[in-house]
Every structure is written in structure tokens, then in C-alpha cells.
Amino acid sequence: MGSGAQASMSGADLTRAVGRIAHEIVERNHSAEVVCVVGMQRGGVWIAEQLAQRIVAIDPAMRVELGSLDVSMYRDDISLRPVIPGAITNISFDVTDRVVILVDDVLYTGRTVRAALEALNTFGRPRGVQLAVLVDRGHRELPIRPDFVGKNLPTHLSDEVEVTVDGVFVTKERQA
Amino acid sequence: MRHVRSIQELGSERISRLLDLTDHMVEISARAVPKVTALRGKTIVSLFLEDSTRTRLSFETAAKRLSADTMTFSVSSSSVNKGESLRDTIETITDMGVDAFVVRHKSAGVPWQMTQWTDAVVINAGDGAHQHPTQALLDLYTVRQSLQGRSMEGLHVVVVGDIRHSRVARSNVEAFSMQGALVTLVAPSTLLPSSCDHWPVRVVHDLDAVIGSADVLYMLRLQTERMAQGLLPAISEYSSLFGLTSSRVDRLKSSAVVMHPGPMNRGVEMLVDPREVPGSLIHQQVTNGVSVRMAVLFDALTQGEGVEGDSAMKGAM
Fold first, then answer.
1. CATH number assigned to the domain with residue range A5-171, chosen from the 4 options 3.40.50.2020, 3.40.50.80, 3.40.50.300, 3.30.1330.50
2. Which of chain A's residues have a Cβ under 8 Å away from the Cβ of B37?
3. Cβ-proximal residues to B256 (8 Å cutoff; 6+ apart), any chain
């Protein structure tokens, strides 16, 4: 967080939002035997872990598979800037005919989600993919929308949004 | 510099980046559909002016897993037979619009010479008796994998065989020494280079004296065509002195690993079936070869200097 960072969600807000999203996921997928919660490297991974715990707490009958996905090899800007892969993908279960919840911290242009959808296909053909994000900051460049949102946060293009366990912080470039 | 021509040129920083990147490629290779879109739209040419099975197929598989387009050049059906020079061949292929050459040539230095004739990335798949950097990288990776997180510092690597004509030996000596391993070369004096003084190695002529202390036993292929040059009195003599026999396998440390770059000469340097050698990593080397070459191609073709698009990138080189 820079000195100009403003908290737009506190840690407690964030915990409540994760809880609400977990409830929404259970409500929408109560007929599914298994849901696969896949966090996007790196920002989405810890949120996916929390979501998975909350889902099981809400509905102990629901089986949850937890995974993580690195999409750097599927990005559409590979030749435009150096690619530094994050942590390694870990999906040790079959996604075919299952519901996959993709989880990320911030939804912005939608390009990472597009890459994730393509990456996911190399693991099988899910019955459906749903998108859960903690913050939707707008400025979509692709026709992608989230299924579950923690908070809609209108931002300027030059703003920086950072999500940590302590909350969501926005840095306005010109203010600092 | 994005070319991949020698271990020294790569340097330890880029080597460790490549080895880390290989972990990603191993995960990708294990998927139901082992394919990523990373190099979509890139064209890679395999220019093998010397025979190869595993290196060529390994590079091609790697390129395909990354979604690159590949062109294969085989001398027997090319205009090289009409007398076209290497320079003209490379300039012609470059004119078709390619992003990388994977080149193997019988003469040392060709990958360096080539960069004057093309602005594509050049990847050395073996130049004469000089360098074979991707082989050394896959060997490093395979050893690193077998160490499960332990350091290579102080590891005893014993390289046995035809050091003199071996580009694999040259690249591996550099690569393993860079990681802090201690390298011993074992060979008859006719199969050693005229001087090893500048190499960070120990040279011995008796395999049995060092086999018990080896952590890595690296068997080189005996290039049997050397017989004709009078460098060896008899293959059977070489085999009994420098070959891996079952009694030598018994004298290896229980933790030791055995490697061979292939192709293997059964009954010459390998007198046992590698499947019966407990520490054999020979199959692992081939499997890892694909992932390591994926990392090499990906790194060489995508670590752009932050400019827009490929043409600008080439122009900036």
C-alpha cells in the first residue's frame, strides 16, 4: 500500500463478503455433488481457500475440491511484456462434468479470466464455470461478467487496487 | 541476449530461471491436454544438419505443446544437395518469417556465425564437439529433481567416456561446476582433449578408483567411428575398463544415480540393462528433455524487452 492508499473495505468487510459469496455459491449449486473451487494465482488462491472452508461449514454435505491455476502461459499479452509465471498450477482432480468456481481477487479487463477459461479446458470439460471475485473494478475489455461479487468498486484506469487479508485498498495516482 | 548457445553464455541466473520455469512445464506436460497457447503465432525451424532422434523430436514436441508452428528441415531432401550454402539456406528460411532456429551442425561455432545472417533467435542443439546446452540443462534439471530440494554443492559428478569428442561433456562440465558440483572426468588419454588445464575438473584414467564415491555417474556414448582413427586398440578393452558392468553397478553408492545422454551403445559403454540399474535416470532424462526445451523456447521467445509486438522486438535487437 502506498501512502495514498484508501481503505474501501476493511478486513471485517472482506470476511463478511466471503461469507455471503459462500452462501450464494451453496444456494446456486445445492444440487451439485461436488464443487471445484479454483483460485487464480496468486491473488485468488487464499480467497479460494477461505471460500472452500466456508462452503463446507454452511453445507457439510457438499464436497469441495480446492485447486489453483496459473494462467501466465495463456495470456494474450505474452509477447508484449516479460512473463513471470506465478506459483505452479495445482489441479489434482478431474473437472469434467463438474461445477468449477473460478476465484480471483480483482476483476478488471477480464483478460485473465479469458486465459483461465482456456487453461481450464486442458483439464477437462466442466459442466459449468462460475466466476467469484472480491472486487469488480470495472473497465472490462471482454464480454465477461462475474457470478458472485464481493463489492463493485468504480475506479479510474490509473488507480491501483490491492486486496489483502486486511482489506481492499485503492491508490489514486494523482492524489498521493 | 535471448539466444541459447552455450552454458557459459546463459549464466547461472538465467539457468536457474530456466530450471524454475521447467517446473511449470512439467506440470503442463502431465495434464490431460498437455498444451498451452503461449507461443501461438511463433514459427520455429528445426535445422538439423547432423543426425538426431531425441533432440529433434524433443524440440518439436516442446514447440507443439506451446502451440508454436514448426518447420523441419532435412538435409537429404533440401537444396543443400544442390550446393546451396548454409548462409543462403538460413537467409532463405529467415525471409519466410521465422522466430527461432533450432540448429545442429557438425562444426563448432555455427550458432554464433548464424546470428549474423538472421535476426531470429538461435538455439544450439549441438555444434560439433563444442556445446549442447539444452542437454546440460535437462541433466541439471533431472539431477535437481532427484535431489528433492538438496543443493548440488559438493556433489560428485563422474563423467566417463569419450570426453574429447563430446559436446555433452563440455556443456555438462560447465553446468555442474556452476552449481558447485565437483566433476571428475574418466577416460583413456586418447579420448581426452589435448589439455583440460582450464577446466574445473579432476582427470583420472581408472574408473574403479572413483566409482565408489560418485553421486552422479554420467556415461557418455563411445563414438565407435573413433575406432577407425586409431584412438582405441579394441572396443572390448574399452568396455572392460570404462564400461558400466553389473559388478561396477554393485560398487555404486546406494544413493548414486546413473545417466546417459543417448543414444546408448549396448555392450560397449552400457554392459547392463539400464532398467536393472537401481539409480538409472535415463528415462527421466528423456521425459524431462521435453519440459526443459519448452522452458528454453518459451524463455527465448517471450522475454521481450517490453516493446509492442514482434516486429518492433526484432528491430530493436
1. 3.40.50.2020
2. 73-74, 118
3. B214, B215, B216, B217, B279
